[in-house]
Design a protein that fits this description.
There is one protein chain. The protein is an alpha+beta fold. Helices cover 19% and strands 26% of the residues. The strands form three sheets. A six-stranded antiparallel β-sheet has the order 8-7-11-4-6-9. It has a three-stranded antiparallel β-sheet with strand order 1-2-3, with no helix packed on it. It has a two-stranded antiparallel sheet with strand order 5-10. The longest helix has 13 residues. The radius of gyration is 30 Å and the shape is flat. About 5% of the residues have low confidence.
Length: 216
């Protein structure tokens, strides 16, 4: 730029090259956005919190569609005010940030402090990954449901058996593929009520000789 006498005027949105003015055009999406704390935070010692932060957007800029990756800002990490957790979030002007305080003192982070950077995330899938989680979508009943249908339709009529088969095929994704295909849910929580009794500690006991073969 020095060799060609270039003058960059951000305020006027133009660049001058050898006395020729060229307007600057802003289009598309930026590759990275700064994320700043929206309000002053007081993080107690040996604790963490999730704070709502603002994505810094200049006038006319918008976030690209899809998801983005939040990574800690190097300058913030260098200030020794606490590590920032990496997060994958949906693009929004306000995003959650996980901040930890591993010290013995209260950490204060002022509003407007840049704590992280947000960059668009690209989802990469391979054909093998897709096939490994693919559920059957054809008209043939999967093998892991054929046995269930056989055991359940012993006393059903032909019409009832056909309806049961259609039901299993429609909801095949709800059934386990095998005995090792465990799912999980957030709808039900299990709690064991032990009353006022505290935890107990018991020594290990040897397995009786006549039961060792069963365990093996």
């Amino acid at each position: 730029m020095l060799d060609n006498s270039c003058i960059l005027d951000i305020q006027q949105q133009k660049i001058t090259i050898q006395n020729e003015s060229i307007p600057l055009v802003k289009s598309g999406h930026l590759g990275c956005f700064r994320v700043a704390v929206s309000e002053t935070l007081n993080i107690p010692p040996k604790s963490e919190l999730i704070a709502k932060c603002n994505v810094c957007l200049n006038d006319g800029l918008t976030l690209p569609p899809g998801d983005s990756l939040i990574e800690p800002d190097e300058n913030f990490l260098a200030s020794d005010r606490g590590p920032i957790g990496k997060l994958l979030v949906s693009n929004n002007k306000r995003v959650p940030i996980r901040i930890m305080n591993v010290s013995d003192d209260v950490k204060v982070i002022r509003a407007g402090t840049v704590v992280a950077n947000l960059s668009p995330a690209e989802v990469v899938t391979t054909e093998s990954d897709t096939n490994s989680f693919r559920r059957p979508d054809d008209q043939n009943l999967p093998s892991y449901l054929k046995e269930l249908l056989s055991r359940s339709s012993a006393h059903l009529t032909t019409q009832q058996k056909s309806e049961a088969r259609a039901f299993l095929l429609k909801h095949s994704a709800l059934f386990a593929l095998s005995e090792k295909d465990f799912g999980r849910t957030k709808l039900v929580k299990h709690r064991i009520n032990t009353g006022n009794r505290g935890p107990i500690k018991d020594r290990l006991r040897r397995t009786p000789v006549h039961l060792r073969q069963t365990l093996d």
